[in-house]
Amino acid sequence: MYVIVVGGGKVGYYLARSLLEDGHEVLIIEQDAQRCQALSSELGVNVLLGDGCEASTMQEAGMGRADVAVAVTGDDEDNLVVCQVAKQRFNVARTVARLNNPKNERIFRRLGIDATVSSTELILSQIERVIPAQPLIHLLSLRNVGVSFVEIEIGRGSPALGRPLRELGIPDDCIFPLIIRGGDHAIIPYGDTEIQVGDHVVAVTSEASADTIRRILRG
C-alpha cells in the first residue's frame, strides 16, 4: 500500500515509522528543509520538500497512485485542503486528516474527508471512562408530587445506543417527551426511536426512578 503523509512533525514521523515497519511504501511531504533531512536520515524514507497543499507538489509525490493520503500538519485548514485535493483531483480512495480542533469534525465530514483523528477527542474519551460524568441535569422539580424534569447527554459508551426505546426497560413512572439531536433538532420520540451519540434526552421521572434512568442511558 502506498501512503503519502503530509506533515513531518512528531505525528507524521511516528506514523511513517509505523507504516514502514508494517511493510508499506511511504512518502512524506514536508516544507521545512532541515526537517526533511532529519526525516530522511532517521527513517530512510522518501521525503519531498514542498507545500503539501499544492497540486504540483502532490503530482510530484505521485498522489495519483496513492492508496491513502494522510494530512497531519498543525493547521486544520491545510489538512482539509490536502485531503480535498487528493480526493477530488487525484482520486485517492481514502483520506485521513488530523484534527487539532475537534469542533471542525462536522465540517470535515460534510466536505468528504473519509476519516478524522483528534487527539483531544481521544483523550476525552479516556477521561470519560474513568471519571463519572454528570449523571443527570435537573431542569425542574415538582417537589410536591415527587417528579423531576431531567436532561442527560448520551455518550459513546451508553448501553442504550442503537436500541429502540421500547427495549430499554424504561420504568412506568418515567417518560421521554423530547430528544435534542445535533444541538438544534428536536425529536418527539416513539417506541421505535433509537438513541444516538450526542443526543440530549429530556425525561420526566419520579425521584425513585432517577438512578434507574441514569443506569439505562449511561451504564
Q: Average pLDDT across residues? A: 83
- Across the major sheet, the strand order is 3-2-1-4-5-6
Distance between the termini: 40 Å
**Assembly state:** single chain
The residue fraction in helices comes out at: 25-40%
How many distinct beta strands? 11
Major beta-sheet overview: 6 strands, parallel
- From the alpha-carbon coordinates, what is the Rg to the nearest angstrom? 24 Å
| Total helical segments | 7
Strand percentage lies at: 25-35%
Shape: elongated
What do you see in this structure?
By secondary structure, the protein is of the alpha/beta class. 32% of the residues lie in helices and 27% in strands. The protein has seven helices and eleven strands. It has helices at 10-21, 33-43, 55-61, 76-88, 105-110, 119-130, 210-218; strands at residues 2-6, 25-30, 46-49, 68-71, 94-99, 115-118, 137-142, 147-153, 174-181, 185-187, 200-206. The strands form two sheets. It has a six-stranded parallel sheet, sandwiched between helices. Strands 7-8-11-9-10 form a five-stranded antiparallel sheet, with helices on one face. The radius of gyration is 24 Å and the shape is elongated. The model is unreliable at 126-135 (pLDDT under 50).
List the defining traits of the structure above:
5-stranded antiparallel β-sheet; 219 residues; elongated; 27% strand
Summed up:
The protein is of the alpha/beta class.
Topology:
Layout (H helix, E strand, L loop, with lengths): L1 E5 L3 H12 L3 E6 L2 H11 L2 E4 L5 H7 L6 E4 L4 H13 L5 E6 L5 H6 L4 E4 H12 L6 E6 L4 E7 L20 E8 L3 E3 L12 E7 L3 H9 L1
Parallel strand pairs: 1-2, 1-4, 2-3, 4-5, 5-6
Antiparallel strand pairs: 7-8, 8-11, 9-10, 9-11
